[in-house]
Amino acid sequence: MRTLKVAVPVKGRLRDPSFRLLEDAGLGPEQPGDRALAFPCRNAPVEVLLVRAADVPEYVQDGVVDCGITGVDLVRERGAKVLELLELGFGSCRLEAAVPDAMEATTFADLAGTRIATVYPRLARELLPVDVSLVDVTGSVEIAPRLGLADAIVDLVSSGNTLRTNGLRSIGVLLESQAVLIARDGEVAAPFAAMLRSVVEGRRHRYVMLNAPEPSLELISALLSPRVPSVLPLAAPGMVAVHALVPSADVWRLLPELEAAGASSILIVPVERMAA
Ligand code: AMP
Fold first, then answer.
1. What 3 state SS string does 75-108 have?
2. Dist CA 53 CA 14 (whole Å)
3. Residues 196-206: what's their mean pLDDT?
4. Is 175 in the pocket of ligand 1 (CB under 6 A)?
5. d(CA 169, CA 150)
6. Residue 259 C-alpha to ligand 1 middle, in angstroms?
7. CB of residue 254 inside a 6 A radius of ligand 1
8. Using CA atoms, how far apart are residues 248 and 25, in angstroms rounded to an integer?
9. Best exposed site among 26, 118, 229, 233 by fewest CB in 10 Å?
10. Ligand 1: does its nearest atom lie under 6 Å from the Cβ of 51?
């Protein structure tokens, strides 16, 4: 089997979660030394190349590597001709337009004719519904209005804290982004994508185990729907064990509801992998 070359961000906020994903997928990536730019994996014919997140789309498009991990924002900004195979569930952020608090604008239309600072000129041009003049900057976009370089900005936002600290207010989301697995040839990358998918899907779920009196079963099953739970008899008469997968994001809501429905000995455990 030929070695699959995978580009992974060498630094920045996508680096550590990308490594963790390779680790959790069981690939056994070797710990790269500080200066290493490529390293093998112990358990699979995969070679990891460390490159800047912004360069990953081109490396994949040009066939220097078979696939890569980077942000959706960077793929779209580069206009790279690659396949977005799998959203990876980390690096979530939004490309937003924001204005100084004192400015009256509240919609994208209000930005017509203004000067907009951004490191995303292609996406700003493509996604803003009005004509603006773009001011290309290479970083610290948030201070451009205060410096008088621009009237507004288009930039990535996750919590919104940086905007607030700089006296800016969002007026809308242009693009939702997160880390993504990209490839040029979907077939070549398919086995690797399947490995990562099983981990990503596993992380999105929890396995719930609980005990319940039989009369509660109908209500508990309704709460767990649309998943059909496994129901096992318990040694105690009239009692059953109920097992089901649930979305991780639903656990906080489900837990008190299950308790109220009569569930006891509720266990919620992580799921390592989830395949078809
Ligand atoms: P970095 O290498 O740290 O500059 O991060 C690059 C990528 O991280 C961006 O292109 C996004 O895909 C992702 N990201 C997630 N949240 C944020 C954020 N709040 N600001 C900038 N980048 C973010």
1. HHHHCCCCEEEEECCCCCEEEEEEEECCCCCCCH
2. 8
3. 97
4. no
5. 15
6. 40
7. no
8. 19
9. 233
10. no
The mean pLDDT value for 193-214 works out to 97
Residue 190 CA to residue 193 CA, distance in Å, equals 5
Burial status of residue 55 (CB atoms within 10 A of its CB: 0-12, 13-18, 19 or more):
middle
Q: Which pLDDT tens digit goes with each residue over 109-159? A: 999 999 999 999 999 999 999 999 999 898 889 999 999 999 999 999 999
* Cα–ligand 1 centroid distance for 91 (angstroms): 6
What whole-number distance in Å separates Cα of residue 24 and Cα of residue 272? Answer: 8
Which residues, including other chains, have CB under 8 Å from residue 42's CB and lie 6 or more apart?
27, 28, 29, 30
Cα separation values, 50 from 11, 65, 67, 142, Å: 8, 11, 12, 29
Q: Please report which confidence band the pLDDT of residue 191 belongs to, taking 50, 70 and 90 as the band edges.
A: very high
- Nearest-atom number in ligand 1 for the CA of 91 is 15
Ligand 1: which atom is nearest the Cα of residue 11?
2
User: Model-level pTM greater than 0.85?
Assistant: yes
Compute the distance from residue 32 Cα to the ligand 1 centre, in Å: 22
